[in-house]
Amino acid sequence: MFSNILVPVDGSEISERSLPMAQSLAQLSGGTIHLVQVISRDPELQAIHGGSGESIQELEINRDAARLLIETRITRGKEYLESLASRLQNEGIKVATVIRQGAADSNIVDYAKEQGIDLIVMSTHGHGGFRRLLLGSVTDRVIRSGAIPVLVLPAS
Question: What is the pTM of this model?
Fold first, then answer.
């Protein structure tokens, strides 16, 4: 069965819709759910670089602000994961939590490989058509990595 089940969550209700399925699978197999949240650093990195006419002092202020934003997002992410983990643990599920920074798809796949994940359970946000083409889909990229089986649950 599935000893290690990875559930990527991003704080949205949609991402959490995959938790009941993962919980059922973990209960059947006695497995562990790995909750992973990936924090994008793009907005913070853009703040660091600034525009071309900024002084060194302004750039330093931007860098400090960006660092504070990242630290805040990490702290909130840890609290969020602890809350989810607590609910699952109250149901007798073994849970591991981790926060990563960077691109969601590559971090999900890398973590899955590193931890010997048997199954990734994730929800799709349901974007289709042109928006999906422009924005891409984390779920699509995780599936296309071909590294680990992925169970995709619809957004609705």
Answer: 0.83
